What does this fold into?
Amino acid sequence: MAEILLKNKITNSTNVLLITTKFVNEFGLPDKVNDYIVAQLKQEDKKSLTYNYIGKYVSILIIDPKKDRAALLEQVRRHAATVADGVNAHKGAEVYIYNQTRLSELSLAAAEGVSLANYQFIHHKPSQKNSNTLKSVIIANTNVNPTKVNELNIVCKAVSRARNLVNEPVNILNATDLSNSFKQMGKEAGFKVEVFNKAKIAELKMGGLLAVNAGSVDEPTFTIMEYKPKTAKNKKPYVLVGKGVVYDTGGLSLKPTPNSMDMMKCDMAGAAAVGCTMYAIAKAKLNIHVIGLVPATDNRPGFNAFAPGDIITMMDGSTVEMLNSDAEGRMILGDALHYAKRYNPELTIDLATLTGAAMAAIGTSGIAGMGTANARQKEKLHASSFNVYERIAELPFWDDYNDLLKSDIADQKNIGGPYAGAITAGKFLEKFTNYPYYHLDIAGPAFITARDGYRPKGGTGVGVRLLFDFFKNK
Ligand code: BES
Ligand code: ZN
Ligand code: ZN
It folds into this structure.
């Protein structure tokens, strides 16, 4: 992260990212440097160039203003990520964004790319000497709205917090720790946080959450967050639900280690996105009433861990034949989605690292989305997803898929057949809803094994920028 500032001043002795449609030397580079840049850009019709000038880092990006808007914004963010690296390599403390185009949102996208790319998770590595020197990104344009700069800072901070939560392993962040971090964020940003302990969860008969927790020494938690400004535009609240499996071993249906269990500290990425979105919404004081629900536990094979074949009674009274303890996310989410009914929501959105099938279908580039939300709600979500480039790929949600969940001895099974695994997971969850509902399976983009532009290796914080944009545009 780096702080984003707005200043209408630029000098020739600073690190610069210049965004332009055609290079014009408006910031005092000496003729020699100017001539060099012009000559270089002519060569092979180059679209970007970096130049080190008296120890300063200058990066020029030539954009095509006619390009698709979402793709253009993303191109700028990704280029800006390389600038963050360049400035850090030069031990620079600041970088100016100088946008010569009329598209003021490109300045914001550039600042966002730099700030998000500057993230580091190094507090467990005190010996690390090369922590980033870059501290501030300065937007050197007056046509950028200060409110937008403020919101961007908030959202980058929220993404960084979500990444931190995902990157903390389960020996450091268990369900109780996760709830405590939500309490902390509630205090800082100004939203209400209530945490149910195991006794309260048992009293409420959250059978799904208790079943998943049965193999663990650590207690489950159920966190309720609420942000309700007096001036809220919506009568009925929006409800966000996040999968908070702080670690998924698969339970008795144990996962293999390589490329599977070894990444499963990320299984609370949905919960992190929900908590950090609440943080961002409250900090930015958006005029919107939102409730966040997070059922949390680890999934382990100890003690009386639920055994494949068990029949579980969920909070709504329905029964589930649990045939695979690795399909645990839907068990805890089913209870949370049932709990959400009491709010009579305008729309409920859940975020969950739910299925390997979603990852197999679209990889790490996007989110698998599906649900019963109305066309307008879906359209808005999809538009936001392209604005921030956390793109949603819509999967079908046909009722045929329910057949795959039929059980001879219970209301449904917790696994479908060999195909359409992401969809059957969504159809399982739908049974616990009686309101407009949208399911975001973030298994692919939540955690990546190699850096990708402004997304660092590890937790990406996916979902926060998407939801903030969605609520901001409400
Ligand atoms: N947490 C996993 C899904 C996952 C996979 C998240 C890869 C992130 C990356 C989930 O609990 C799971 O194990 N799902 C099973 C469901 C199956 C048993 C029906 C899966 O996808 O294999
Ligand atoms: Zn699992
Ligand atoms: Zn899981």
Notes: The chain has a mean pLDDT of 95. The pocket of zinc ion (ligand 2) is lined by residues 248, 250, 326, 328 (CB under 6 Å). The chain has two domains: 3-144, 154-472. The domain at 154-472 is CATH 3.40.630.10 (Aminopeptidase).
